[in-house]
Amino acid sequence: MEWHEALILLLGLLCGLLVFGLPVAFAFFAVNIVGAVVFLGGGPGLEQMIRNSLTALTNYSLAPIPLFILMGEILLHSGVAFRAINAIEKLIAKVPGRMPIVSVAGGTVFAALSGSSMANTAMLGSALLPDMLRKGYDPRLAMGPIMATGGIAMLIPPSALAVLLGSLAGISISGLLIAGILPALALAVLFVGYIVGRCLLDPSLAPTEDAPAERGWSRILPFVRDVLPLSIIFLAVVGSLVAGLATPTESAALGCVASAAATIGYGSFDRNKMTVALLETAKVSVMILFIIVASVTFAQILAFSGATDGLIRLVTGFELTPLAVLVAMVLLLLFLGCFVDQVSMLMITVPFFIPLARSVGIDPLWLGVIYLLSMEIAFLTPPFGLLLFVMKGVAPPGITLADVYRAALPFLLLELLVLAAVVAVPEFGTWLPTQMVR
C-alpha cells in the first residue's frame, strides 16, 4: 500500500469515527486495531499495542499531569480560589471596566495555581458573571474576558497540556512550562488594555459608578491575607523549575503539598471536599492517559505504514523555508481548532509535525509554544471551542450561544496577534527558558 493510501485510510477512518461521536480515546483505539492488522502483522501488532500501553502508563514524565490537575482541584473545591478572587475584586478600584479587569487579574492568578482552562472559566463565570450583569455591564464585555483569561491556564505553569505536549513531542517539559509565561502575561496586558480602551470609547458598556465599598486598609487586607500567601504555591512550582532544584514531577508534587497546606492554613481543609478533588482529578487524568496510550501506537502505525516519511518527503520536496512550513502548520492547527478538542489536535498532528519540524530545522521549543498558543485559540474558536460551551453553561438563560461567540471575537483577535508575534519573533517564546538554562 502506498503511503498516501495508508494516510487516507488511517485519517479518514479516524475522522469518520469522530464525526459519528465516538469518544476520542476509543476512536484512536479502533484505528489502532485496524492499523495493527493491516500494517503491523495482525496478532503481533495487537501484542505491540499492549506493550505500548504498559510503556506509556509507566512513563515517569507524565506524572506531573495528575499532580498539576490536583493542585487546581484542591484550591477550587476548598474555596481558597474564590477567596483570592474576592480579594482582588476589592483591591481594584476606579478604573474603566473594573469588573472585567478583575476577571483578567483573578483569572491570571488562578491560572498560575491551576492546570485547567475549563475549571478557570467555570469558576470565574460562576463567581463574577452574575454580579457583572446585575451591575449593568454589557454581556459581551462581561463574558469575553472570562473566556479569554480562562485559556491562559494552558500557558502558565502548572499546565497539564504543556506536560502532555512535551511528553508526546519529546520537548523539554520544564522549558515548555517556563516558555509560556511571557506570552501569557502579554495576553493579560492586552486584555486589560482592550477593556479600558473599549470602556473609554463607549462608556455605556460599563456602569459609571462601580467601586468597592471598602476603603483604606480594609480594602488591602484581603489581598494581603488571601492572595499573597498563594504566591508560595507558584514559587514552589516555577521557582523550583527555574532554579533547577526540581524536575517537573517534583515541582508538581511540591505544588500539591503547598496547595494542601494553603487549605489547612485558611481553615478550608475538609475530607469531603478533598475526596471530590481527588475524584475529579482521577476522572480527567484517566481520560488523558487513555488518549496517551492510544497515541503511542498511532504514531508507530503511521511510521510503519510509511505515511510519516512520505508526507515529510512531499513537503521537503517543495523546498519551502522553515517559516513557510511553520505558517502552514499554524494554519492547520487553527483550522483543526474549529472542530476538535486540544488533545485530539495533539494526537492528530504531533506524529507529523515534530519529525517535519526537525527535518527543516525548526526549534522544537519554539514550535511547542506555538502549539500551546494555537490550542488556547482553539478554546475560543467557533463553532466548537470548549470554553464557549463552558461559558454558555454558566451564563443566565437569556444569553444565547451567538452572544457568547460575539463576546469571544475581540479577544480571539488579540490572541491571534500574540501568536503572530511569537511566529515572527521566536525569542518572544524561547527567551525565558534560554535564560533559565544559562
Characterize the structure shown:
The longest helix has 35 residues. The model has no long low-confidence stretch (mean pLDDT 84). Helix 6 packs antiparallel against helix 7 and helix 9 crosses helix 19. The chain has one domain. The protein is built from 22 helices and no strands. It is an all-alpha fold. The chain starts with a helix and ends with a helix.
Q: How many domains make up the 3D coordinates?
A: 1
The percent range for strand residues is: under 5%
The low-confidence runs, each spanning 5 or more residues with pLDDT under 50, are: none
The largest β sheet comes out as: none
Q: Specify the structural class.
A: mainly alpha
Number of helices: 22
The helix-strand sequence is: HHHHHHHHHHHHHHHHHHHHHH
Count of distinct strands: 0
Helix share, percent: over 70%
Summarize the entry for a quick read.
By secondary structure, this protein is mostly helical. The chain is about 80% helix and about 0% strand. The model has no long low-confidence stretch (mean pLDDT about 85).
Question: Which tags fit this structure?
Answer:
438 residues; 78% helix
Sequence-ordered SSE layout with sheet pairings:
Layout: H1 3-19, H2 24-39, H3 43-57, H4 64-78, H5 80-91, H6 98-111, H7 117-135, H8 139-151, H9 160-169, H10 173-179, H11 181-201, H12 217-226, H13 231-242, H14 248-265, H15 271-305, H16 307-317, H17 322-337, H18 342-360, H19 364-380, H20 386-394, H21 401-424, H22 427-437
Helix pairs in contact: 1-2, 1-16, 2-3, 2-15, 3-15, 4-9, 4-14, 4-15, 5-6, 5-12, 6-7, 6-8, 6-11, 7-8, 7-20, 8-11, 8-21, 9-10, 9-18, 9-19, 10-22, 11-21, 13-14, 15-18, 16-18, 17-18, 17-19, 18-19, 19-21, 20-21
